[in-house]
Amino acid sequence: MIHVGTDVHVRNSVLNAKDQDGQVLARGRCGNTMLELGAFFAPLERRAKSTGETIRVVMESTTNARAIQRLLTQYGREAGIDLTAEVLHARKLRVIAESVNKCDRVDANILTELSRSNLQLPVCYMPDDEEFALREH
């Protein structure tokens, strides 16, 4: 499995990707657009297709986490890979909230390590598009 920790911001995200053994596959900052996220995920997509690995993306709940989750889910569908994007409950991730060394790269790395740990992470409920539309009105 490929694990990707994502520290999401309004205009961009900091991403950190590792394999199951902890080897860094990719890391960096990219814009929150399909084009830029696709450029970051392209090498991971090639690896996933050649090895049959799945990609698990985890991110803290933020204002636009739902939008990023939808973009990544769409990317995985269009690329034909098994990509799961999960939004984690930020308040329950005490390891990040109480971190002394607070920076985007560190937060993305912590999220990646949490994903690799196989612990049961506090995943937020994210309504599907139909239910979300009903809630908005």
Automatic annotation (TrEMBL):
<feature type="domain" description="Transposase IS110-like N-terminal">
    <location>
        <begin position="4"/>
        <end position="135"/>
    </location>
</feature>
<dbReference type="Pfam" id="PF01548">
    <property type="entry name" value="DEDD_Tnp_IS110"/>
</dbReference>
<dbReference type="GO" id="GO:0006313">
    <property type="term" value="P:DNA transposition"/>
</dbReference>
<dbReference type="InterPro" id="IPR002525">
    <property type="entry name" value="Transp_IS110-like_N"/>
</dbReference>
<protein>
    <recommendedName>
        <fullName>Transposase IS110-like N-terminal domain-containing protein</fullName>
    </recommendedName>
</protein>
<dbReference type="GO" id="GO:0003677">
    <property type="term" value="F:DNA binding"/>
</dbReference>
<dbReference type="GO" id="GO:0004803">
    <property type="term" value="F:transposase activity"/>
</dbReference>
